[in-house]
Amino acid sequence: MLSTLRFMFFTIVALGLIFCAVVMTILNTYKPIYRTYINDRFVGYFLNEQQFDEVYNDLVAEKQSIDQNVKVYLDSEPTFEKCYIRDSLLSEQNIYTNLRAEIKTEYTIYNVAVNGENKMVFSTEDDANKYAENLKSEVDTLDTQVNMEKVSTLGEITSFDRADAILEDLVARNKPVELPEPEPEPEPSYYIPPTTYSGPIVPDLTGERCWPTVSRAVNCDYWGYYGHNGVDLKASIGTDVYAYAGGTVTFAGWDSSGYGNCVKINHGNNVVTIYGHCSQLYVYAGQQVTAGQLIAASGNTGNTTGPHLHFEVRVNNIAINPWVYLNQI
Ligand SMILES: [Zn+2]
Predict the structure, then answer these.
(1) Å from CA of 226 to ligand 1 middle
(2) Residue 145's domain spans which residues?
(3) How far, in Å, is the centroid of ligand 1 from the Cα of 148?
(4) Residue 4 included in any domain
(5) Residue 50 belongs to a domain
(6) 189 pLDDT higher than 80
(7) 252 and 299 housed in the same domain
(8) 305: which of 57, 65, 258, 323 is 20 to 30 A away, CA to CA?
(9) Is the Cβ–Cβ distance between 68 and 60 less than 8 Å?
(10) Is the dihedral angle over the CA atoms 121, 123, 127, 129 positive or is it negative?
(11) 221 alpha carbon to ligand 1 midpoint, in Å?
């Protein structure tokens, strides 16, 4: 009887030990774990939510090491489903790789656009502004702008060396060419008279007027040298000479005082015009002429240093500045 009880006792102990061993084995092999999903996609087995957060934060730090301003996020919150799996499955999985594939990123980049075309990309607004400002200060004709853009993957960021080269190239292509200072206009070989007259009040003439020859160029003005009391107009030998205004020819011939062949016309009110140094005379004393009538051909007779028309105006036989009348044309 005793031996039977002892046998039963040991049997129960043995069975109890076997049971415990089986339970221990099962517990060691199958662990409670969380099957984790994002957007219904399986991303791995996590021991708990805390482990998920640790892995997630590691991955955020990994992205931020590339760009500290990157926005990292998941499409949706993870869901955890408790289950039991074998140890071997845990060691086979790579939760970093799985979760990395689910992580979304949003990078903020700053494009430097020149005339609407992106030329440089920076990860900070300051860098982009710096290059945009540099370019604007060098070439203000270019439309240079900094545009912010959100992108999910980070493309190539322009290195400063590359940006410097691009800037240099843009400046070289677009900087306005600085033209050398234009040569100053050469001084005219003839004198251009003032258009204001300051002198005695002279009689008005009525009727038409005519410039006394073809050219308006002045070789030597009234009092261009001491005692020069007419205006020398540019004219070669044989150039037409015209009556300034209508009147009566009072002299047409040789003048020995220096005018050479000359014509004098009285326009009334003792206003007389004189045309000196002529080569030919086409009118005679006493003849009535009209303004613009051909009266002579210019030349270099008399006291001259070269061909020209000496035009002189006398009022009461006193030479006055001819511009008071010439300016009326
Ligand atoms: Zn003269």
Answers:
(1) 11
(2) 106-172
(3) 78
(4) no
(5) yes
(6) no
(7) yes
(8) 323
(9) no
(10) positive
(11) 8
Residue pair 271/326 in contact (Cβ under 8 Å)? The answer is: no
Query: Which tokens in the block code for residue 293?
Result: 């009538």
- Using the predicted structure, report yes or no on whether residue 238 has a pLDDT greater than 60: yes
Give me ligand 1 centre to Cα 238, in Å.
17
Residue with the larger pLDDT of the pair 90 and 157: 157
Q: Which one of 87, 102, 117 terminates a domain?
A: 102
For ligand 1, the distance from its centroid to the CA atom of residue 271, given in whole angstroms, is: 18
Cα 162 to its chain centre, rounded Å, is: 23
Query: Residue 181 domain-assigned?
Result: no
Q: For residue range 128-171, what is the model confidence (pLDDT) as tens digits?
A: 999 999 988 888 888 899 999 999 888 888 999 999 999 999 88
Give the mean pLDDT of 263-286. 95
Under 8 Å between Cβ of 260 and 276: yes
Confidence band of 279 (pLDDT split at 50, 70, 90) = very high
Q: What is the rounded distance in angstroms from the CA atom of residue 220 to the CA atom of residue 228? A: 8
Tell me the pTM.
Answer: 0.45
Give the mean model confidence (pLDDT) for residues 163-189: 77
Pairing verdict, β 308-315 and 271-278: antiparallel
Assign 94 a pLDDT band (cuts: 50, 70, 90).
Answer: confident
Q: How far does the centroid of ligand 1 lie from the alpha carbon of residue 310, in Å? A: 4
Domain boundary residue among 76, 102, 128?
Answer: 102
Q: Does 312 lie in the same domain as 222? A: yes
Number of domains in the chain: 3
Q: Is residue 122 part of a domain?
A: yes
Q: Report CA(306)–ligand 1 centroid distance (Å).
A: 10
Residue 287 has pLDDT above 70, yes or no: yes
Q: In terms of domains, do 319 and 224 share one?
A: yes
Pair 223, 320 in one domain: yes
